[in-house]
Amino acid sequence: MKRQAFIAAIAVCVLSVALTLAVRAAEYNSAGTWLCTVSGEGAKGDQAGHFTLVITEDGDNITGSYYHGTASLTGARSGNTVTGTFNEKGDAEHSAGSGVFKFVLSDDGQSFTGSWGPAAGQTGGTWNGTRQ
Q1: Residue 32 pairs with which residues in a beta bridge?
Q2: Structural domain for 87, as ranges
Q3: Tens-digit pLDDT profile for residues 9-67
Q4: Burial of 105 by CB count in 10 Å (0-12 exposed, 13-18 middle, 19+ buried)?
Q5: How many domains does the structure of the chain reveal?
Q6: What is the CATH classification number for the domain harbouring 87?
Q7: pTM of the predicted structure, to 2 decimals
Q8: How many CB atoms lie within 10 A of CB 81?
Q9: CA 57 to CA 65: how far, in whole Å?
Q10: How is the chain classified by DSSP, letter by letter?
Q11: Is residue 60 in a domain?
């Protein structure tokens, strides 16, 4: 009888952890408007940039736009991590470019820390955001 109670207690604990992880994964959502700050050496030599990024989600797939629509990103979210590629067409204020990014959403989903680079495995700088 004690063994059955022990197994039942273990099953309840495992179920509780699984439900907590499922709820946590459902809480992460990158969709919305983000005030972003990026750093790193750009084609024009700019050291920091501030802009608004708008992200939409369709399942775990994400799309976004920034620089008044002249730049876009696509990628996927897995739990609290969003990875993908960006493409900047360039305008009078911003140089054209493309590359990869990685964002890690905070536990409360209100901010992310991340990085960008010209290619996989190369870091160009930071890319952080706060939900608006």
Answers
A1: 55
A2: 30-131
A3: 454 444 444 334 444 444 689 999 999 999 886 544 445 688 999 999 999 999 999 98
A4: buried
A5: 1
A6: 2.40.160.90
A7: 0.74
A8: 16
A9: 12
A10: -HHHHHHHHHHHHHHHHHHHHHHHHHH----EEEEEEEES--TT---EEEEEEEEEEETTEEEEEETTTTEEEEEEEETTEEEEEEEE---SSS--EEEEEEEEE-TTSSEEEEEEESSTT---EEEEEEE-
A11: yes
44-56 burial string, b = 16+ CB within 10 Å, else e?
eeeeebebebebe
In a domain, 103, yes or no: yes
Cα–Cα distance, 23 to 71 (Å, whole number)? 33
- Cβ burial, residue 60 (10 Å; 0-12/13-18/19+): middle
Residue type (1 letter), 38: V
